[in-house]
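REQUEST ID: PR-0412
SUBMITTED BY: lab tech R.K.
PRIORITY: routine
TASK: structure prediction, single protein chain
INPUT:
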Amino acid sequence: MGRYNLLDEKWIQVLLKNGGGTEKVSLKEIFSNAGDYYDLAGEMKTQDFAVLRVLLAVLQTVFSRFDSEGNPYDFLEIDKETFTQKEPADWEDLDDEDPFFETWLSLWEKGKFPEIVQEYLEAWRDRFYLFDDKYPFYQITSEQMKELASGGGQFFGKNLNRTISESNNKIAMFTPITGKSEDKDKLCDDQLARWLIMFQGYTGTGDKKKVELKDVKDKKITYSKGWLYDLGGLYLKGNNLFETLMLNCILSSDFDKKLSDEMRTQIPAWERSPRENVEAYFHNKLDNRTSIYTSWSRALSISQDYQEGSSFSCFIAKLPEINHVENFLEPMTCWQFNKAGDNKDKFTLKKHQQEKAVWRNFNVLMGVGLEEGEHFQKPGIISWYQTVCEDNSMSQLRNFKVTINSVSMQDDGNATSWAPVDEIIDEIQMETAVLIDNNKDGWIETINTLVNKTKKYIENTLVRFARQVFAIRGYDSKDYHYVEQQRERLYQEIDQRFRNWLREINENDSMNEKALEWYSTLKKAIQDRGDEILRNASFKDLKGIEHKDKGFMNIATAYNEFMRNVALTFKFLQKGGEQ
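STATUS: complete
OUTPUT:
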């Protein structure tokens, strides 16, 4: 008999609207009352991202089969007991209609999810037990683990809890859990549910055991460290959880027109048995959006006798990774075009960088470029939002301030473990009308030009000055730590100013005036950082050196050259002309 059913138990942490604090809700409650919650509020933003995708998988599945009134689409044959789609539909029969997008529009207008979501969850109740001897949620049974991976490798609560991530070889000194060492392994059932979902997305490769199927002879399998681990994760945030779910719920036959009929048939993990889930990774059956949203990195088994409050352990074994090359089924990520290597001339997933604010990669974020021949792939979630806003009935969104959230997991750089060490989270906000302006001379191209020139101007002024100071001080020519430090300090100082500038852009603003406004801000920030370097000059900086190309050089001569470069770089500001 199963226990701790996620449909009823309160395991999802949410932030209430209007400063009401946090509370835990069940899966059924979150869909009934999504408009009452501001956001997910788990232990980590990476955890929230993983849980959000599970919620989206429910919605994508339900509304790929039923309309906003809970009626099956007339071109689909739906099983009355399981609510599953019996056969792939022939989408060409839709002609110019898009019933899925009509469903999306109707749901947005209603502001809440219909009863069909609850009915669907009830139809699959037996697949949402955290502990079960047949269909344990996001797991396989212990018998299957013995068969497929010789019992698997043991894994503990301190490994599953990503606020600790302690290995068996090294103690994590600074963790949110203090006291006895065994306390780090203790998990409540609601924590276990959240960490289980997150672990399947962000895993690493430090464990050794692998799942092996007798009918699969391929010895060149690459095993997964977690699909989410490799994403430059992106999602759109609304004014409440209902809006956030809707903004990220892709329902459109036109948007998915390049997919085959089979790929449009949604099959989340809970609609497969544990054994079927394992086999799907060996036979490339994760070919639809909800399968990717609910993907596993490990076959995992938990003792059905586990009681919360005791030390937790489970057994795990590696599963093959999902195809990373041009897998555009995944909409919630950035992409990079490879000019060399095994994936030359192809797009692969691009993670965010800890040291770079997301706006500094604006071209990757928006899928735009400046030069002829450059290759860019727009993140699917950005394309989807632009599709929504282009509909005449959604004109009310033009003045809506949309927030683009980015989330990645930073690893330790060790290919034998890829252990998680920190989250990479960021956001930018802009007016919708600005975000969807994809014209050649529109706002997106203008902002991208401005971001690229910002980088160029910083290199031509402050970074050049820092390199000269670097030389004056006689630092090792291979050690550019000082130069990098000054560059990043400047980016930190302009970061919030750029975000504010971007957020305040209105579609009717003059592009030239807004650009000049930003360049004026940037110029002052560059000068202030240069002045700070001069004020902190040492006697050695003033004494100077004989440079082989420049002759005598000290910080005063370098500063004078810096100021000339600033004046030349920003000379258009004095004329009030084009940048």
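NOTES: The chain has a mean pLDDT of 92.
REVIEWED BY: pending
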